[in-house]
UniProtKB/TrEMBL annotation:
<dbReference type="GO" id="GO:0006633">
    <property type="term" value="P:fatty acid biosynthetic process"/>
</dbReference>
<keyword id="KW-0596">Phosphopantetheine</keyword>
<protein>
    <recommendedName>
        <fullName>Ketosynthase family 3 (KS3) domain-containing protein</fullName>
    </recommendedName>
</protein>
<dbReference type="Pfam" id="PF00109">
    <property type="entry name" value="ketoacyl-synt"/>
</dbReference>
<dbReference type="InterPro" id="IPR020841">
    <property type="entry name" value="PKS_Beta-ketoAc_synthase_dom"/>
</dbReference>
<dbReference type="InterPro" id="IPR016039">
    <property type="entry name" value="Thiolase-like"/>
</dbReference>
<dbReference type="GO" id="GO:0004312">
    <property type="term" value="F:fatty acid synthase activity"/>
</dbReference>
<feature type="domain" description="Ketosynthase family 3 (KS3)">
    <location>
        <begin position="5"/>
        <end position="187"/>
    </location>
</feature>
<dbReference type="InterPro" id="IPR050091">
    <property type="entry name" value="PKS_NRPS_Biosynth_Enz"/>
</dbReference>
<dbReference type="InterPro" id="IPR014030">
    <property type="entry name" value="Ketoacyl_synth_N"/>
</dbReference>
<keyword id="KW-0597">Phosphoprotein</keyword>
Length: 187
């Protein structure tokens, strides 16, 4: 049996959290002992009303609804679709989690200093992705929105746009999805 002990190095990181657009801001947020809980902005509340009406109409009148209070990203609409070769129309149909993933994965690649050399490499993409709900918001599913809302396409979309030639798959194991994806990547 081969020795399974070998070093693994994290060479690039990136993150996006409420009130933190990058790792430095997140660290400062922690050092300042701030709280990210807050109310959804009026514009974002207006944007999700259609979804809330479909899923639970009673939540629209509840000021403590989980739809309107919590930890929220400030700019979920910020996405450079052109950079990833995605049309503006297709970008509208892509689950915000996929858009975030593409942006943050690219930032981690840049942080690792691999932006110039990763294209066409044997790099694999392993993603932990616990759930998807964006499809419930879209009324009509066409081929663009089907690709943009189906979670497994998250890994293949990144691989396609960066011409990565290693394995590309998504793991859904509830709360342990990311841990399992990291384990599989190490294997």
């Amino acid at each position: 049996m081969a020795d399974k002990n070998f070093p693994v190095a994290v060479i690039g990181i990136a993150c996006r959290l409420p009130y933190a657009e990058n790792c430095s801001q997140f660290w400062q947020f922690i050092c300042d002992k701030r709280d990210a809980n807050g109310n959804l902005s009026p514009q974002r509340a207006k944007d999700v009303q259609h979804f809330v009406k479909q899923t639970d109409p009673d939540e629209l009148v509840n000021p403590n609804s989980p739809f309107f209070t919590g930890c929220f990203f400030e700019r979920i609409d910020k996405f450079d679709a052109n950079f990833f070769g995605i049309s503006p129309e297709e970008a509208l149909c892509i689950d915000p989690q996929q858009r975030f993933f593409l942006r943050i994965a690219w930032e981690a690649i840049e942080d690792a200093g691999l932006a110039a050399s990763i294209f066409g490499s044997d790099t694999g993409v392993y993603i932990g992705y616990p759930e998807e709900k964006y499809l419930q918001i879209l009324r009509h599913v066409n081929k663009e929105s089907a690709l943009g809302t189906h979670p497994p396409f998250t890994a293949t979309r990144l691989s396609y746009h960066l011409d990565l030639r290693g394995p590309a798959f998504l793991v859904n194991a509830a709360c342990s999805s990311s841990l399992l994806a990291a384990h599989l990547a190490c294997e």
